[in-house]
Target: SprT-like domain-containing protein
Amino acid sequence: MRDDKWLKNLAKRVLQRYFPDVEIKNNLFIRFGRFNKQRLGTIKFGRRKEDPNTFITINGFFKDENIPEFVITATLAHELVHYSQGFFSPHPQLHRYPHRGSVVNRELTERGLDDILKLQKEWLKKNWADYIKKNYYV
Ligand SMILES: [Zn+2]
Model:
């Protein structure tokens, strides 16, 4: 089983490799969250009003080593693009909406994450529905 420490290390590698120009300007916490059928990851502010913390939460299913690492890398990178574009981070907000106009995928491509994004998409399309059927108990 992967744990939060493993996830933090992966995030560190993703930041160093693909986001070397993006300054982490506040406390950024990255951790596994609940098991979720749909959402792969989220980014949110903590409760503190002044200088709020940022929380990136990754689907709890991704602790399972049957999920390929590139799926998690792509999910982390997606949330880190939001961070860099000023959504739930101290950076200036670059767009009015977080997803409209494929602004996230465009930046992922610019940062050299196109292949990983494609791998993630293909893997999810092929496997996710079955995985959920086998592993999600309501
Ligand atoms: Zn998003």
